Batch of 3 targets.
Target 1
Amino acid sequence: MKVYLRYVLLVVGGASALCGSQSSPADPLPPPVLQSLATQRIPPTALSIVVRDIGSGETLLAVNPAAARSPASTIKVLTTYAALDELGPNYVWQTRALATGPVVDGHVRGDLVLRGGGDPFMTTERWERFARELRFRGITHIDGDVVVDDTLFEAQTADPDDFDGKGYKTYNVLPDALLVNLQTVEFRLVPDKKGIAVVMDPAPDNLRVINKIHALHTACRSGAHALQFTEESQTQITIEGPLSVHCEGVSLRRAVLRGPEFAYGTFVTNFRDSGGTIAGHLRIGATPPSAHLLVSYESLTLAEIIRLINKFSNNPMARSLLLTLAAERGGAPGTLTKGAAAMADWMTRREITCPDLVLDNGSGLSRVAQISAECMTQVLTSAWKSRYFPEFAASLPLGGEDGTLKHRFSDTRGAARVRMKTGHLKDVAALAGWVTTASGRTLAVTVFVNHPGAEYGDGDKVIDAVVHWALER
C-alpha cells in the first residue's frame, strides 16, 4: 500500500493487466448506447461500463473496465459499505458532556467539556436535546469555560473555499468530531413593521448578523437573488440588498463559523434557552483526564446514517464516516492516512482488487479521487454477498421513488427496479448499484462518464441508456 498526503492513494494488490490507464478491450456497445453517445457527442473513450450478473458472475458488458475514472459521489458506495461491513449496522457515536470540577447545588465548579464523538448527524433538534439533558440532571450554571474537545479527528487545516470557491455551501463543510447541524444556519427573511427581519435557525450565540436589507414595497419578482452575504469576520455576517416585503417564505441556508465555534455558539443558545447560565467562554482542547461524565448522548445507528449519506449524497457525513473508520481501526485522531490503511486492509480481506484507487476524502468531492468500473463492480458484488446486504441496499436511492433518483427511472421499466448511487462533478456523471432485470436477474451496473460538460445532463442520458439496456436483459 502506498499513501500520499495531502491526498490519499490506495494500491491494493492486483495484476499489472489492470493497472494505470491500460484498459481491457471494449465490448461492442449496445445500439441504444451508441446512439446516445452520438447524440450527446461523447466519445466511447470517455466511457467506462461494467454490467455483471450477480448470481452467475457473468459479465454482460465491459467497456474500458480498468480505466481509472473520476467517480464523483459514487465513491460513497465504497466508503459506506466498508464502514458498515467493519463496524456493523448498530454502531453508534457518543457525544459527551463532562465536568472538570464537582457539581454543587447545580453549579459546575469548573469547566464544562463538550467531547465530540464524531456523530455525523447531530441535528439542531438533537443538539437542543443534548443541552436539555444537562438541565434535566440539575445543572443550572457553569462557573468556568465551555471546552470543545474535537480531538477524535485530525484538525482540519483546509479552507472550505478551496474546492470551488463556495465554502458557504453545506456540501463544502469540513468534517469535525463535534459537527452540529452540518455547521449550517437557515436565514429566514420575514417581513415585519420595520422592514425585513432576519431570523436564524439555529441561532449561534456567537454569530452577529448586520441586517442591511432594503425593504421594497413592490411585487415580489426576484426573491432573495439580489441579496449579498459578506463575512466581515469569523463571527459577523452582513446581509444587504433589496427584497420585497411581499416575498413570503424566503430562506437561505449557509455554512457559518468553524466546527468548534458553531458547536459552542449553538450550545450556549440552547443551554440558556433552557434556563442555564454560563460564566466563562469558549476554549478548544482535549478533555482533562480528571474530568467526570455528566451526559452521554447516542447518535442514530450506522445503518440509519449510511441511508442519509447515500440517499442524499451528503459529503460532510461521508467524510466523517471515513475518519470514524480511521479512528476505530488506527486510534485517535482519525486521519486520512489511517483511513487509507483501514480501507486497504479491509479490501485485502474482502479480496477486492483496485490497483489505481485514489480514495482522497471518501466523499467524492475531489478533483483527484479515482476508481475503475471493474473495482466498483467488485465492491457491489461483495456488498451483495454481505451479511449486511439488506441494510446496505436500503441505503441506495430507489429509482423513481426517493433520494437523488426520485425523478429518474420513474418509467414502468425502471421504477423500483433500480437501486443506484448517483455522482456528479465538473465533467463527471456516474452511477453505480444494482438493477433487477425483466427476467428477474440482479445485475451490478457501474457507469462512469468523464467528459467536458458531462455533469449537465449529457452524461446522464448516456448512463440512462446503459441502465435501460440492462433492465431488459
Note: The chain is about 25% helix and 25% strand.
Target 2
Amino acid sequence: MVRDQSDKGPSDSSSPPLPPPSPRAALTGATHPLVIYCGNFLFAYRDYLFPLLFMILLLSTKPTLPFGSERIDWWMDVLGIVVVLVGQGCRVLAIGFVDNIGRGGHQKRVAAGILIRSGVFAHTRNPLYVGDLLIVCGLVLIASCYWGYLLVLPGFVGVYWAIVLAEEDFLGQKFGQDYVSYCQTVNRFVPKFTGFSHSLTGCSFDWKRVVRKEYGIACTWGTMVLCLLIWKQWERVGYAARTGIQELSALFLLLLVCYGGGLWLNKSGRLRS
C-alpha cells in the first residue's frame, strides 16, 4: 500500500525553520544590483542633471499653447509656480525641523550618521526628494512643452527612484532591523498627514539652517522659472514681447541680489545655527 504524502508523522516536521531574511533582502527584494549601482552613480551627480537637461530642452524645443489657449497657458504657469513653491516648502520643513541631515552624503556617496525618524521624516521617508520632484513637476507645467511631459518628468522619476533604492540598500545594511521597521510604518514617498502637526510641534525650527542650505536651490529654480517665462514669450511673440521680458529680467537681477546676499551671509558666518 502506498502511503499518502499528506500523512506525515511527527518526525517529518522536525526540519529546522528557515532563517529570517536579511534587512537588505527585506528592503530591496528582487532589485537588480545594476539599479543599485546606477542609483549610487546618479546620487553623486544628481545636482547637475536637471540644469543640463533644462538647457538642452530650451535649446532644442519650442513651447506650445495647451489646447491652443493663452488663458489655459497662463493658468498652467500659475499652477506650476504653486507646485514649485509647495516642493520648496517640503524641503524647508525637512531641513528646518530636523537636525543632522547630511545633504550630498560624504564625498559624493550615500552616508548617514544616524537614522532620522522625527519631524517630517515621521510621515515620509524622502521629504527632500518629494520636494525635488514637485519642483520638477512645476517647471514642466510652466514649460508647456511636450518633451517635458514625455522625457523630463518620467526621466527624473526614474532617476530619483534609483537613487532612493540605492539609499535604502545602504541604510538597510547600516541600521538593520531598525530601518526595516521604519520602512514598514512610513511610506517611501506619499506622506501620511495623521499627527503631522504634532510631529512638527515637538521639534524646534532653525531658519538660519534653512537659509544656509536652501538659498542656492531656491535661486536655481527661481532662475529656471524666469528663463522659462522669458523663453515662452520670445518664442511666441519675439521682439514684441520686450516689455514683459524686461520686467522678468528685472526680477532676475533681484534674484541675483538675493543669491549674493545669501552667499555673503553664509560666508561671513552669520547663518551659523
Note: Confidence is low (pLDDT under 50) at residues 1-11.
Target 3
Amino acid sequence: MINKKIRLIELFGGVGCQALALEGLARYNGLKPEDVFEHYRYIDNDKFAVKSYNAVHNTNFEPIDIRDVTGKDIGVIKNKDIYIYIY
C-alpha cells in the first residue's frame, strides 16, 4: 500500500504514455490520478513533444536538454517522497 503521492519523473517522455498508464491504473482502482501521482519533472528537448505533453496532461513544462540537468535539478529528497523515474 502506497500512502504517499508518487512523484513522476519522465526523461525523454514524448507525449507521456507512462503518465497515461498511471492515470489509467488510478482510475481502474477508483482513484483520482491527482491523488495518486504528480507530474514532478519532465525532461525532453523536443519542443513539439513538450508542447504535446503539456496539452495532454495540463502541465507547463519547458524543453530542456538532459545534458544541462544535474542531480540537484531533479529535486529528489531521499527517504521523504516516493519517486518513479521513467525513460
Note: The chain has one domain: 6-86.
